Amino acid sequence: MESRTLTVVLTKEEEMYVAECPEVGTVSQGYTIEEAIQNLREATELYLEDFPLRKKQRSIVTFFEVRSNAATA
C-alpha cells in the first residue's frame, strides 16, 4: 500500500477541533488536535477505499484577505 502526505486544515469550533482534508473533501472532529487529525485520517482512509486518488500532485496553500463590515469586539 502506498503512503501519501495530505493537507489538514484545523479550526476550533466551541469545544471541538474540526479537521478537513481539502484534497479529498473529508472532514472530522475531535476534542484535541491529535484526536481530530486521527479521526480525519481514519475517515480519509475509508473514503479512499472506494474513491482512490488518481493523480499524485501537491496542493497549493495560500491566503487572501477580505474586508468585513462587522465591528470587532
Q: Enumerate how many helices there are, as a single number.
A: 1
Assigned CATH architecture: 2-Layer Sandwich
Mean pLDDT across every amino acid position: 90
CATH topology: Double Stranded RNA Binding Domain
Radius of gyration: 15 Å
What is the 3D form?
flat
CA(first)-CA(last) distance: 50 Å
Q: Structural class, judged by helices and strands?
A: alpha+beta
- Order of neighbouring strands in the sheet with most strands: 1-2-3
How many beta-strand elements?
Answer: 3
What's the helix-strand series?
Answer: EEEH
Query: Are there runs of 5+ residues with pLDDT below 50, and where?
Result: none
Main sheet? 3 strands, antiparallel
Helix content: 10-25%
**Estimated share of beta-strand residues:** 15-25%
Count of discrete structural domains: 1
The CATH class turns out to be Alpha Beta
Describe it for me?
The protein is α+β, with helices and mostly antiparallel strands and 73 residues long. The protein has one domain: 2-Layer Sandwich (Double Stranded RNA Binding Domain), CATH 3.30.160. Helix content is 25%, strand content 22%. It has one helix and three strands; from the N terminus they run βββα. It has a three-stranded antiparallel sheet, covered by helices on one side. Strand 2 (16-21) and strand 3 (26-30) form a beta hairpin. It is flat and about 50 Å long. The model has no long low-confidence stretch (mean pLDDT 90).
